[in-house]
Amino acid sequence: NNVKSWDSDSTKDGTGLSSWIQSIDYDSYLSELKITFKDGATCLYKDISPNMVEDFNRASSKGRWVRDNLVAKNHEYKVIKVGHSNNDSDFNSKNKSAQSNGMKVVK
After folding, report:
1. Which residues contact 19 (CB under 8 A, 6 or more apart)?
2. How far is CA 91 from the centre of its chain?
3. Percent of the chain topping pLDDT 70
4. How far is CA 25 from CA 21, 41, 68, 102, in A?
5. CB atoms near residue 8 (< 10 Å)
6. Which pTM was predicted?
7. Which of 13, 24, 96, 98 is 20 to 30 A from 41, comparing alpha carbons?
8. Rounded distance between C-alpha atoms, residue 19 and residue 41, angstroms
């Protein structure tokens, strides 16, 4: 099996992956990392090396790892599913903020 998965129920302490990540799947054959956020949004990150996945596994905070290694480094991604928010304007402002901070969005 070339897919490794993490979800909110798989953590040892039961606190979940992160306050904003629901699940993560890594396909080693395709070198793709699929992240589903708690708002329902799903993003696909390509060109993820096995070393990055090892670093992710060792990270004490999975959400911080995603922020520091994917978001902050402007790793290119594709939105597979748009999430929902209790406040759509909040979601839109976060999306605009992410784009204004140089995130590369592939549609």
Report:
1. 38, 63
2. 16
3. 68
4. 12, 14, 18, 25
5. 15
6. 0.68
7. 13
8. 14
